[in-house]
Amino acid sequence: MASSSEESYVDRAMAGPTPDNPSLSLKTRLKRAAFFDKREREVAEGNAEPVDHSAGLPEAGVEEGFDLPPEEDEGAGDRPSV
């Protein structure tokens, strides 16, 4: 869990996929991260119950673990690296 002195879920989502937020889509990661940041604030205020961080993830991803996609060579493909 992140505290005010640690990185927020949104900060981590901006850095890339994580086991708790594995989507390759930044928009999807930010939406999920914003929910967990908000929920963490509500839990700290006593207004909500904590949520399991694997909530809403597909069962296959939760059971099999998290694997980052393989790194591509710089010359591979026409897409710029992110």
TrEMBL record:
Domain of life: Bacteria
Annotated spans, Disordered: 1-27, 41-82
Acidic residues bias (residue ranges): 61-75
Protein name as catalogued: Uncharacterized protein
